[in-house]
Amino acid sequence: MSSLSTLIPTLLISGLVAFAVGALFVSLGNIKSEIREDDRTYMDPLPGPLRKIWPLVNLLVQHFGDFLPVEQVESVRLQLRKAGVEYLMTPVQFIATRFVAAVIFGLVGLLVMLMLKEKGTILIPLGAALLGSVFPLMKVNDLRRGREKQIVRFLPTYLDFITMAVEAGMNLSGAIAQGVEKGPDGPLRMELQRVMRDIKAGMGRMDAIRAMSDRLNVREITSLTSALAQAEKSGARLGPTLKIQADQRRSERFQRAEKLALEAPVKLIFPLVAFIFPTTFLVLGFPILMKFLHEV
């Protein structure tokens, strides 16, 4: 009788849990069927981790995307454009991605808190949620910095190709096309291809170059755009102007390399003092200490 009395509550609890899990899966299936899939015909393919959480992102965009401030959306759009991922997701989707990442990281932090079973560990899920919210932004900033480094690195090479084409008698549009054809692959090539598409679509040549400068917001590209605009306005030859720009950008690249080389010894001080020197002293001193102890 006693075993029957303990078995009934167990069966009831198990049944309730099974019913709750089944209802959860049914609800998730209904929600997923109601989510509108975004048209990615002209968008870049999603990476694997993003693809797994994308239904949740679209769910948030569908229900809360219209309530976001226009200023915030435009600010995020500018960040995505500088990072070169404006065709990966929309600004609203990026904001939703940050929220989903915060929830996922927060749940992981909550699981860790429950495993620790200590008081005051509520900071763990809160800190994890904050990290999850900041992580996509950090990733975008890393992409932006890497993209800007590649643009500055390959700019002298493209300027050399464009200068040779201009001095051979081609106009600036044809010279840019030659640079795109012969230059190395990278973000600068993609931007110049976009300049060519804008020109073919009817935009003025300098207007297309200024639009590229506004998109990138890189000092070297801004300086090049100003020099080209001044040369075209004054009627000066573009060949010498482009050659001066190429020499200046190449000189700046060498100066940056020299600066990094000079900073290397300073950056090595902490690893030497904190890790290498103590390990060396331990390896050399331990046999001497053991020999001394045995003799004593």
From TrEMBL:
It is found in: Cell membrane. It is a multi-pass membrane protein. Residues 159-284 form the Type II secretion system protein GspF domain. Its main location: membrane. It comes from the Bacteria. GO terms for cellular component: plasma membrane. Keywords: Cell membrane, Membrane, Transmembrane, Transmembrane helix. The chain crosses the membrane at residues 6-26, 95-116, 122-140, 268-290. The keyword Cell wall biogenesis/degradation does not apply. This is Type II secretion system F family protein.
